[in-house]
Amino acid sequence: MEPTKLDDAVAPEGNKPAGMTAASIAKLAVAGALLVAIGVIARGAKPEELDVALPTPELFSEAAATCPRNDPAEARAIADDLRARADGARERSPFDPREALSAIKSYETAAACCRIAKDVEGADDAAHAARRMRDETLLDFRSRRVRLERLLIVKDYELAAQDVRVLRALTEGRQSEYSQWLGAVARDLENQQVENVR
Question: Which range marks the domain in which residue 100 is found?
Answer without folding.
Answer: 22-54+69-198
